[in-house]
Automatic annotation (TrEMBL):
Record lineage: Bacteria, Bacillati, Actinomycetota, Actinomycetes, Pseudonocardiales
Entry keyword set: Zinc
InterPro entries: GlcNAc_PI_deacetylase-related, LmbE-like_dom_sf
One Pfam family of this chain: PIG-L
Top-level taxon in the UniProt lineage: Bacteria
Official protein name in the record: PIG-L family deacetylase
Organism: Amycolatopsis cynarae
Alphabetized Gene3D superfamilies for the sequence: LmbE-like
Length: 254
C-alpha cells in the first residue's frame, strides 16, 4: 500500500480539489495524510474566530484520512493587499521557499511518502498561497526524494462553463470571470482524471464540516451553501471527477 501526502494551502481546499481522491485512496487501504500550509485567525460576522483546523480534522475523519498536520504559517489572504504578519507566525506568501520546503520534506520523509499531491503552477485560480504551495511542494519533493508528484487542478474549459452556469442561476459569485480564463490548467496539460462519484457522499459531508466557510460571507460561500444542500446524486454529477497533472521527477517543468 502507498503513503499519499496531500499538501494544501488552506482548510477546505482538501475537499474541493482532492476530497474524492483521498477518500478513494483511504478506502483502498492506502495511508493518507493531509498537510495544510495555513490556518486563519479571521473573525466571522459574530466576532468569533473559527477553528479552521478543527473543521479540517472533522473533514479528514469523514474522508478516512489518517493524519492531519499544519505547516505553521498564516493565511496570506487574496487580493491586492498583503497584510502584516500576525504576532505569532509568518504569512505563507512571505515564507522562505527553502525553509517551508524543508518543513514539508521532513513530514514526507517521516511518512515515507510515495506520492505527493500539490497544486499546478497557476495555483489554481492564482491565490498567492496556492502558488506558494506549488513552489514549496515541488522543492519538498526534490528534497525528500518523492518519486511521484501529482498537481491538483481543473480543466480551464470546465471552469469557464461552470461560471456561466453560476451566472445564469444568479448565484452570487465575486470572482473575475475574465481572470478565470487563464486559471488552472488547459485540458492538454492534464494527465490524470479520477472518477470519484462513488465517494460523493463523503466529499459532500467533508465540505459541510467546514462550517465557517459554508456559513460565512466569503466570495464562494453562496456556492458552498448550494453544494452542501444538493441531493448527493446531483453533487456527484457536479464534483464527481478530480484532475491532476503529473509533475514527477523526469517529466520536466510545466
Amino acid at each position: 500500500m502507498a503513503s499519499i501526502v496531500a499538501f494544501h494551502a488552506h482548510p477546505d481546499d482538501e475537499v474541493l480539489l482532492t476530497g474524492g481522491t483521498l477518500a478513494r485512496a483511504a478506502a483502498d487501504g492506502h495511508r493518507v495524510v493531509i498537510v495544510v500550509a495555513t490556518d486563519t485567525m479571521s473573525p466571522v460576522p459574530d466576532g468569533s474566530v473559527p477553528d479552521r483546523l478543527a473543521e479540517l480534522r472533522a473533514s479528514a475523519e469523514i474522508l478516512g484520512v489518517h493524519r492531519v498536520e499544519h505547516l505553521g504559517y498564516a493565511d496570506s489572504g487574496h487580493g491586492p493587499v498583503l497584510y502584516p504578519d500576525p504576532p505569532d507566525r509568518q504569512r505563507f506568501a512571505r515564507a522562505d521557499t527553502e525553509e517551508a520546503a524543508a518543513r514539508l520534506a521532513a513530514l514526507l520523509r517521516e511518512e515515507r511518502a510515495d506520492v505527493l499531491l500539490s497544486y499546478d503552477a497557476n495555483g489554481g485560480y492564482g491565490h498567492r498561497d496556492h502558488v506558494k504551495v506549488h513552489e514549496v511542494g515541488r522543492r519538498a519533493a526534490e528534497l525528500a526524494g518523492v518519486g511521484r508528484v501529482l498537481e491538483a487542478t481543473l480543466p480551464r474549459e470546465v471552469i469557464v462553463r461552470l461560471v456561466r452556469v453560476i451566472r445564469l442561476l444568479r448565484i452570487p459569485f465575486r470572482y473575475d470571470a475574465e481572470a478565470l480564463d487563464t486559471a488552472y490548467s488547459p485540458r492538454c496539460a492534464i494527465t490524470h482524471s479520477f472518477d470519484v462519484r462513488g465517494f460523493a457522499r463523503q466529499k459532500q459531508g467533508a465540505l459541510a464540516a467546514h462550517r465557517s466557510q459554508v456559513a460565512g460571507t466569503g466570495r464562494v460561500a453562496p456556492v458552498l451553501r448550494l453544494l452542501v444542500r444538493l441531493p448527493v446524486g446531483v453533487f456527484a454529477l457536479l464534483l464527481g471527477r478530480e484532475w491532476f497533472a503529473d509533475a514527477s521527477p523526469g517529466r520536466g517543468s510545466r
